[in-house]
Amino acid sequence: MEPKLEKKYGFFTAVTMVIGTVVGSGVFFKAEKILTATGGNLKQGILAWLIGGVIMISCAYTFAVMATKYQYVNGLVDYAEATMGTKYAYYVGWFMAIIYYPAITSVLAWASARYTCVLLGFSITGGECMTIACVYLVASFALNSLSPVLAGKFQVSTTVIKLIPIFLMAIVGTIIGLHSGMTKYNFTHYVNKSSSGGLFAAIIAASFAYEGWIIATSINAELKNAKKNLPLALVAGTFVIMAVYVLYYIGIAGTVKNEVMMAGGEEGAKLAFEKVFSSAGGTLLFVLVVISCLGTLNGLMMGCSRGIYSLAARGNGPKPEIFSQIDPTTNMPVNSAIFSVLLCAIWLFYFYGANLTDGWFGFFDFDSSELPIVTVYALYIPIFINFIRKEKDLSVFKRFIMPCISLASCVFMIIAACISHKTAVIAFLIVFAVVMAIGALLTLRRKIS
């Protein structure tokens, strides 16, 4: 009998995957961009965090309702299939496997390496950083492929660890800031009023920090009592995330001036920790920050390694007979994982050339940390519309109110991306169209053969 994915994860693993996949580098990595986009306007920055959080929670709630009705192999693809049919589900899965998962995972590998370089005193733009990023990618792949249970335990432990520096900064930083007047200063002084992108750009940046919760649905076939545990994990996890982000952001504002964070980025965050907890204590807590980033990378790799498998399990995509195989020893789709980590390496190379250099790709330089996320929100729209149309047995709140809020959130994200990223959206859409055309050719060839 062909091996199948086993029920090996519990509720705590699911909720920590939601929190652990989302909370991590984004809250540190994008704080600088949010402040820059709003011209150092802390109030507008907090508003961006709140709006991004509401968008995340509304969409997570709608998917939580879906999770009580649809339960198969791979979350988002299954929801697309149940609401829109097999063809749409295939294209959603193809996009997730080829663009979304590897692009976001590669950025997380780079972000983890960047914080490691800050900790070790290396250049954050040099070869050391990219080398460490590659090491992190391979290590995360190996952990998930060779020992998925250990990867789950690592996800739980890093989630607990990553909350330590965030909560400490949120509480202690706020207290110190209120006493010293730093919080009041940052709330009342703007660095510059001519911001680069404004609130829309800040919300798109926050979307990266909030992204990842949907990846928790990729383990629903391996989740014990999934119909109960997955919805609870999605709702509880997303509420915790928004609260944690806003409180941390306010805590940071109590330690260093906005202009320092805008200029320093990761160095500014490290300075904030050292200022509050002394040099030794700040360095120790920054080590926990690095660990938190690795936990986020691990959560993304858990979803990424199953990306092409979700298509192959349905007989779709390239070589489904190969990528649908489950290793009998590790109970993991190892071939799918290998393919995924190679895609991550390609997207890491692209991210470096497009975003960390003078621009290797010219017109096709776009931010692969944000635009794939906005595309996912665009893909949600038909799913939500058909969900409203089909699920007639649900209450008005579950069938109409929350899905409509989710729809409005998705449309808002698309508009915000067009305003903030401008022509880069066109470049990304061209790449997106080429990738989807390849996916169409693959499925067409399979039908002909």
UniProtKB/TrEMBL annotation:
GO-annotated molecular function: L-amino acid transmembrane transporter activity
InterPro entries linked to this entry: AA/rel_permease1, AminoAcid_Transporter
Xref: PANTHER family: AMINO ACID TRANSPORTER (PTHR11785), SOBREMESA, ISOFORM B (PTHR11785:SF512)
Bilayer-spanning residue ranges: 9-31, 46-67, 88-112, 118-139, 160-179, 199-220, 232-256, 276-297, 332-351, 371-388, 400-419, 425-444
Cellular localization per UniProt: Membrane
Descriptive protein name: APC family permease
Keywords assigned: Membrane, Transmembrane, Transmembrane helix
Main localization of the protein described in the UniProt heading: membrane
Source taxonomy: Bacteria, Bacillati, Bacillota, Clostridia, Lachnospirales
Entry's Gene Ontology cellular component terms: membrane
Protein's UniProt keywords contain Membrane: yes
Organism: Blautia liquoris
Membrane topology: Multi-pass membrane protein
Top-level taxon of origin: Bacteria
